[in-house]
Amino acid sequence: MTVIKQEDLIQSVADALQFISYYHPVDFIRAMRQAWETEESPAAKAALTQVLVNSRMCALGKRPICQDTGIVIVFVNVGMNVQWDAELSLEEMINEGVRRGYTHPDNVLRGSVLSDPDGARANTKDNTPAVIHTRIVPGDKVDVEVAAKGGGSEAKAKFAMLNPSDDIVAWVLDMVPTMGAGWCPPGILGVGIGGTPEKAMLLAKEAMMDPIDMHELKARGASNHVEELRVELFDKVNALGIGAQGLGGLTTIFDVKIKEYPTHAANKPVAVIPNCTATRHVHFALDGSGAAEFEPPDLSEWPDIEFELGDDVKRVNIDALTAEEIQSWQAGDTLLLSGKMLTGRDAAHKKIVDLIDRGEPLPVDFTNRLIYYVGPVDPVREEVVGPAGPTTATRMDKFTRTMLEETGLAGMIGKAERGQVAIDAIRDNKAVSMIAVGGAAYLVAKAITKSTLLAFPELGMEAIYEFEVENMPVTVSVDARGESVHKEGPKVWSAKIAERIAVSEV
């Protein structure tokens, strides 16, 4: 009988979380590299370049790929012949591993988990508790899959109880465009079919842990209905032209992974969950011989590239912004920002709007300033700030008009598209919205030369800071005329892909 020691499981979980915070899975690196090599959309290729450069930097610097270091999801298969040398429960051991992993002094990870989710929403400080799924199975080992899932991609999960005769492909193709770009494509779609509502969602989440093998599948041909469905969805989702970061391009997904389970005759539960460019998961097994060991990817797996901007980049001194300069920018323009910007996310925006509603003074002067939607990782060693990539801009849409009209704010930086309510406010106020690349948090942080806390310290990573930046790369996503690159880019590339498909079928 195998004896598993408490400390071995705890340390294995902690080491796994550190490992996946700065190493992409090798299959994902290869898929990103292939997409980068074949991408024809300049905007999408530039985004993929940043993601790949960031990924290699994180592997070398052992710092998080993304500032959103995720909510921890653990799948545990416990062999029936396993005996535990432990005082803690299985969940307590795993959560102690999470606690150690996220508070490691050499690579502090961001605590994103909040207790009392519909009340005080207080940060637990160490990213516990994890979401744990346990099975008791035959055997004498403990198999563990550890994942850290970003909130932006989780927010785009979709579920439906379809009728038995409904077309799953049609439903997924309806859902993917509604996800926008907040899940940071390209990535993987996990699809769960069957069971009950909660089972379908669990199947979709499990499916995303399977290795990427779409190109091998297409080369050998589908051998069953599920494989046929995977190929059909892969081709048709990529034909939507959404592309990297939603900017329009050839690659929106690297693979579609599907798991099924028997269901009631009257039902067809279907779930789809995307995984983002900060895909993070690893498998390990404990057999009683000690804690798990993790082998780093070979650096040769990454392409030897550097992030370079073209000649048409515009250098902007944001300390001397004028309305005329902002109105000269067009959707799709690449800017290099230097100067002082503010930061703020959901919680800070809510506090600001509440102060405005009550007629109370604001703690910060927003006049003619830019605000960066970010919740960075805490710095370590000589860092000014830890990885500091953008959060999803859409969540701030409901605050945008008030911020622009009541504070004098000039513009915003986040990731993904803006909804129509925000686009209208930006157009009406001749403001601007920009994107930094999601999944390039460490690269973005290198442009930040100083960080000063200004307001709401109780909000932790959601407090308002002032960042001094030098040559921070951004793209104009919505210009002062209300033109949106996230609307035009996919429209152009879906048309190009459709034309190619039509030609190939002649």
Question: What does this protein look like?
Answer:
This protein is α/β, with parallel strands linked by helices and 506 residues long. Among the domains are: 151-277, 60s Ribosomal Protein L30, Chain: A, CATH 3.30.1330; 314-489, Alpha-Beta Barrel (fumarase). The chain has 15 helices and 19 strands. It has helices spanning 6-22, 26-38, 42-61, 90-102, 151-154, 168-178, 197-207, 214-220, 225-238, 323-328, 346-357, 397-407, 420-428, 441-445, 485-505; strands at residues 2-5, 71-79, 82-85, 114-115, 122-123, 131-137, 142-149, 158-162, 187-194, 253-261, 268-275, 281-286, 314-317, 334-343, 370-372, 411-414, 432-435, 448-455, 464-478. The strands form five sheets. The chain has a five-stranded mixed barrel with strand order 14-15-16-17-19. Helix 2 (26-38) runs antiparallel to helix 3 (42-61), helix 11 packs across helix 12 and helix 12 (397-407) packs parallel to helix 13. The mean pLDDT is 95.
Annotate the secondary structure layout:
Blueprint lengths: L1 E4 H17 L3 H13 L3 H20 L9 E9 L2 E4 L4 H13 L11 E2 L6 E2 L7 E7 L4 E8 L1 H4 L3 E5 L5 H11 L8 E8 L2 H11 L6 H7 L4 H14 L14 E9 L6 E8 L5 E6 L27 E4 L5 H6 L5 E10 L2 H12 L12 E3 L24 H11 L3 E4 L5 H9 L3 E4 L5 H5 L2 E8 L8 E15 L6 H21 L1
Parallel strand pairs: 1-3, 2-6, 9-10, 13-14, 14-15, 15-16, 16-17
Antiparallel strand pairs: 2-7, 4-5, 7-12, 8-11, 9-11, 14-19, 17-19, 18-19
Helix pairs in contact: 1-4, 2-3, 6-9, 11-12, 12-13
